[in-house]
Amino acid sequence: MKWLITGGCGFVGRSFAARLLGEQGHAVRVFDNLSTGKRSDLATVGAFSEINVGDDSSIWQEGLSLQEGDILDECAANRAVVGADVVVHLAANTGVPQSVEDPMADCRTNIIGIVNMLEACRKANVPRFVFASSGAPLGVQIPPLHEELAPHPASPYGASKLAGEGYCSAYFHCFGIDTVTLRFGNVYGEGSGRKDSVVAKFIKLAMAGEVLEIYGNGAQTRDFVHITDLVQAIRCAAETANIGGETFQIASAKETTVSHLTDVLLIAMRKEGMEEPKVVHGSHRQGDVARNFSDTTKAKNQLGWTSKISLEDGLRDTIRYFLNRSNR
C-alpha cells in the first residue's frame, strides 16, 4: 500500500512509519514542515529519499520518503496525496496551552490544515483518510467518554479538533471519502523525546535533576495509552472495511489520576536505577478538564482493537528509551 503520513516526523508518525516499514511492500511518504520533528528524527526510522519541487510526486517507491511542506500550503498538499491509498493525518497544533495562548494559530493549523488535506484527497480520489483527534472535542463531561456524547469543548484546541471531526463527516457524506476519526487518549512511549506531555516531561525533568510540578492537586484524571497500542489502532482504522464516517475512542479505558501516574512513574524510575525527583504541586492550568477516560467498546466491536500494554510496563519501557537516548 501507499501511505501518506502528515506530521510524520513526529512521535506518532515515526512510530507508525516504523511499523509499516517492518513489513514488505509498503511505500511510506511523510509530509511534514519540520517545525517540530526534524530530518534527524525521521532518520531514526530508516534511510529515506526526498521528494523535491519539480519531482513527479505520482511515482511511489517502496520504502520511506519525505516531502517537506505545510498542510496550510494547498499546492503542496495536492502534490503530496497523489496516488496514495491512505492518508493518516497527524499534523496539528497538539496542545491546550498553545491554543489558549494563540487561538487563531490553532484555528489555522487544525481547521484550514485538515480542509486542505481533505480537499487534496477529494481531487486525487484517495479512498481512506484517518484523522487523529482526541478527547478534547468532548470537553467537560462525566466520563467514561464515548462516541455518542454531545461535544462541549473546554479549550480552543478542543474546538478546532471538533471542527476537524465535522469536516471528516462532511467529506464522507458529500464526497464518499472513507474518513475515520480516532480520538486518542494521552499517548506516551518510546520515541517521545520531543513531547512535552506529562510522561515525557516528567522523565526529562527527573533525568535533569529538576522538580516535577503537578498542576493543581493531582486529582485530575487521564487515560494513558502506549504508542504500540495506538499504532495498532491506526492500522485497524486504515484497513477495516465499512467504517467510513465513524469515530472511535482509542485509549486504555482506565481512569488514572495524575498523582497515581506520578507514583507509578517514580517506582519505575527507582527500578531503572534513577534518582527519585522531588514532586511539588502548582496552580491549576487554564483549559484543563478535570476527568477524562474512555469507553473503547466501539473500537473493540468494529475495529477488533483493545489496548494491551499496562501502565507499569509501558512506563518502564519509556524510561529505558530515554535513558538509552541520553547514553547515545
Structure write-up:
This protein has a domain of 229 residues: NAD(P)-binding Rossmann-like Domain (Rossmann fold, 3-Layer(aba) Sandwich). Helices cover 41% and strands 19% of the residues. Helix 1 packs across helix 8. The protein is globular. The model has no long low-confidence stretch (mean pLDDT 95).
In short:
The chain is α/β, with parallel strands linked by helices and 328 residues long.
Low-confidence stretches: none
Reading side by side through the largest sheet, how are the strands ordered? 3-4-2-1-5-6-7-12
CATH class of the domain at 2-188 and 224-251 and 294-307 equals Alpha Beta
| Beta-strand content estimate | 15-25%
pLDDT averaged residue by residue:
95
**In the CATH classification, which architecture of the domain at 2-188 and 224-251 and 294-307 applies?**
3-Layer(aba) Sandwich
Radius of gyration over C-alpha positions, nearest whole angstrom? 19 Å
Structural class: alpha/beta
Indicate the CATH topology of the domain at 2-188 and 224-251 and 294-307: Rossmann fold
- In whole angstroms, the N-to-C terminal distance is 34 Å
Number of helices: 11
The largest sheet, given as strand count, sense and whether it forms a barrel, is:
8 strands, parallel
SSE string, helices as H and strands as E: EHEHEEHEHHEHEEHEEEHEEHEHH
Look at the structure and name the CATH superfamily of the domain at 2-188 and 224-251 and 294-307: NAD(P)-binding Rossmann-like Domain
Overall geometric form: globular
Helix content: 40-55%
Count of β-strands: 14
